[in-house]
Each structure stands twice: as C-alpha cells, then as structure tokens.
Amino acid sequence: MGSSDTAGTTLIVGACQAGVQLASIMRELGDTEPIVLIGEENHRPYQRPPLSKGWIKGELEPDDVILRTREWFADRGIQLVTGDRVVTIHRGADGAGTATTEGGRSIRFARLALTTGAAVRRLPLPGTDYRGVHYLRDADDAISLEAAMRDPATRRVVVVGGGFIGLETAAVARGLGKSVTVLEAAPRLVGRVVAEETSAFYLGAHRRRGTEVLLNARIARIVGDDSSVAGGKGAVSGVEMEDGTVVAADLVVIGIGIIPRVELADQLGLEVDGGIVVDEACRTSDGLTVAAGDCAVMPNPYPLGTGGRIRLESVNNAFEQAKVAAATLLGRDAVYSGVPWFWSDQADIKLQIAGLSTGYDSVVVRGDPETEKFSVLYYRSGRLIAADCINHPAEFMAIRHALGRGATIPPADAADTGIPVKRSIVEPAAAALV
Ligand SMILES: Cc1cc2nc3c(=O)[nH]c(=O)nc-3n(C[C@H](O)[C@H](O)[C@H](O)COP(=O)(O)OP(=O)(O)OC[C@H]3O[C@@H](n4cnc5c(N)ncnc54)[C@H](O)[C@@H]3O)c2cc1C
C-alpha cells in the first residue's frame, strides 16, 4: 500500500458532509498544499438526509445523493480515499504526524482534522440479529432497507423510535402502502427536540395517515423464527413488549439515536465529553487538531442560546463548523456563531426549525395545526429564540433571518395570523425594550 509523505499535507479523517466541506473551503481560502480526505465507507461522499426520504422510497440513484463527483476532487487536488479506515494516529508536539489505516496505508500529515461523525446507537435488547431488523445511518443501511421496503412480502413495518429518522422512515413505509407501527418509549414524539405542541401535531398527522403510534412503549425483545435457518438467523416476526404482547412485523427499523465517533480523539488524548470537545474556532484541546460536524461538541454557537456546550446533528451545523475549522487550520481568525437550522420531511409535511429552543419558557402556536400549515414559536423571557415551521417555508425564512439579526416578534402579534410575520418583527434596537 502507498505511503504519502508530503510535508504540508492536511489529513481530514471522515469523508462526508463536514469533511468534504472542510476540504472545499480550504481550497476556496487559497490553500495549495496537499489534502488527503479519507473515509471508511465504500462510497463516494454522499448526503445522508435523502437516505430516510427519497432513497428508501426507491426514487433516487447514487448520482442523486453524492456530494461531489470524483472530477471535482481531482480538479482541486484533493486526494479522496474511500473504503479505508484510519486506525492509529501518532503526532508530535508540532502537530505533524502519521496516520495508519486498516488497509495498510501510512499517511504523513502536517495538519489534522477529525470529521468522523457518529455511529448508530444499537438497541440493547435481544433479537436485533434476526433477518429483517435494520438500522439507518449510512448508505449500506439504506440500500438494504430500500430492498426490504420494495419486497412485496414486507407488509408490516415496525419502527422503534419516534425521532426524526424513525418518523421519516415510518412515513415512507406508510406511503408505500405498508401497515406501520411506531413504538416510542417516551410520552411524546420527537420529545428531545420540539415542544409538546409540535409533538402532538406529529402524533395526529401520522395517525391520520394510518400509522399506529404507541407512546410509552416498553419493548422487551425482538422475536423471530428460530426454527430452521442454516447458517444464519431466521426472519423477524415481531417486537415483544414488556407486557408480553407482540407487535407483528416483517420488517423492523430501529432509530434510537447516534453516538459520536471519538475513538481517534481518545487515542490522541483529546478532551472528550459527549463528543470531541472544541472551542468556537473548532480547535480541539491540543490546540492543533480541529474537529467538526456530528462528532464535535462546542460552546453553544447561538447568540440567543443558553450557553454551555452543545453537540448538533444537522447538515447546517456540519457545514458551518467545517467552514470555521478550515479557516482555523489555515491560521485565520474564525468563530462559529449563527442561527442553527434543521429540516425534516415526513410524507407531505415539511418541518423547518430555526434557532435552538433549549431553555424556552413559553410557546405561541401560530395558525391551526389541523390545517398542517402552522408554526410554533419558542420564547424565553418574552423573547423569540426559535420556531418550528410546518409547511411554511416563507415564515421559516423570515423568522430565521429575524433571529440572525437579533430581532424578535412580540408573542401577542405572533399568535395573530392576520398580521404577516414580516410585519410583526421588531428589530434589535427596539427588541431590547420588548
Ligand atoms: C438517515 C439520515 C437522515 C438525516 N436527515 C437530516 C435532515 O433531514 N436534515 C438535517 O439537517 N440533517 C439530517 N441528518 C443528519 C446529517 O446527515 C448529519 O448531521 C451529517 O451527515 C453530519 O455530517 P458529518 O460529516 O459530521 O458526519 P457523518 O455524515 O457521520 O460522516 C462522518 C464520516 O466519517 C467516517 N469515519 C469515521 N471514522 C473514520 C475513520 N477512523 N476513518 C475513516 N473514516 C471514518 C464515517 O464512516 C462517515 O462516513 C440525517 C442523518 C441521517 C443518518
């Protein structure tokens, strides 16, 4: 296997949203030194969001989801390595070092970026190895899940976990005509991220579309056919609850969250605390390595946030952190600050979230959730800090930009759909008085 020993090389470990963006921005900022971008997956770098949407519905081809073509990398002199995993990294006090890979590569570098993302959280219960039990984090997961969805023998789908990925998957399965049950352990859907009002909307919306949703669901194990399959586990047949009832299934999809990939950071002795700890310039605790994306935990970048550290799992965050990390590696001053945003598509329902609702003390529902076009605005001490906009892109854009300027919307005006949201916005100087 090859050995790259070019002195000024930047090594970026993890070739997905954050890693590709980081390499791209380094070139945009004028860096001409070699860049090696390495990812363990056997695919060209791709976008994950379509996996739980168009991909498992069978609507997309690989070219629809790739982030950049091979030519794009070649044109910019970015050496893309796929299908190989960095297993050890040694670096000296000056920051330069050597990484070795599972495939036997040895890569010398002057600068190092970790964009290692996250791994899917496994359900710690018996039975997850039956045929027909799936997770959904990467392209290989999506390819096998799409095939299972397409199989006419797959009639009953059980989704474990009522977070965004679980609900997106449930919506696809239901749209394909399957009988679908969502099992959520908490008392409400997407409870970690949205207010009661948005959770209640999703519960109603999925039920209206024919999906069964069980809240406070206590799962004991996954059950299947143990009788006769030589050389492998039999097919899944259902999910057994703690009370002994079984929810029948031909396909079980588990979506219970992710765990940041910190193994290389641990090896390097970097501070890790629910992710690789970085400062607002995306610098890790050694002051030399940068980290960005799902793997990184950083000072809350949101000026209207509650402070402390936060780890965000979104494309927007991966992009913004990668921009800052690239600038930092090149010795430029850059600080991550902005209005985080996120989206989720479930059937014909588009949710767009602007801001971070952590620490809210009241909400205003703007519009009628029954119409499936409305917004939930989050307030802290009377000041707007975030919004969930359902099927309302114009409102989302207006609110996102308003939050970015430090503007607010008085709660009483927010509730009045007779006043366009743009006319309710109170700009920063005045907002301080509200
Ligand atoms: C199904 C799905 C749907 C989503 N939908 C949305 C959405 O609608 N909206 C939204 O905002 N976000 C969504 N997300 C989240 C979004 O995709 C992630 O936040 C984003 O991909 C994070 O990018 P990243 O580059 O930090 O990490 P990742 O995308 O996880 O990439 C990290 C890469 O590093 C590789 N790697 C790790 N360790 C090594 C190593 N030692 N050597 C080599 N390679 C390594 C991994 O294999 C992986 O390919 C979704 C995610 C999933 C899985």
UniProtKB/TrEMBL annotation:
Q: Which organism is it from?
A: Microbacterium rhizosphaerae
Pfam families noted in UniProt: Pyr_redox_2, Reductase_C
The protein's name is: FAD-dependent oxidoreductase
Taking every annotated instance into account, which residue ranges of this chain make up the domain FAD/NAD(P)-binding?
10-322
Whether Cell membrane counts among this entry's keywords is no
Q: Which residues cross the membrane?
A: none
Cofactor(s) recorded in Swiss-Prot or TrEMBL: FAD
Q: Where is the Reductase C-terminal domain?
A: 341-423
Q: Work out whether the entry's keyword set contains Isomerase.
A: no
Q: Keywords assigned by UniProt?
A: FAD, Flavoprotein, Oxidoreductase
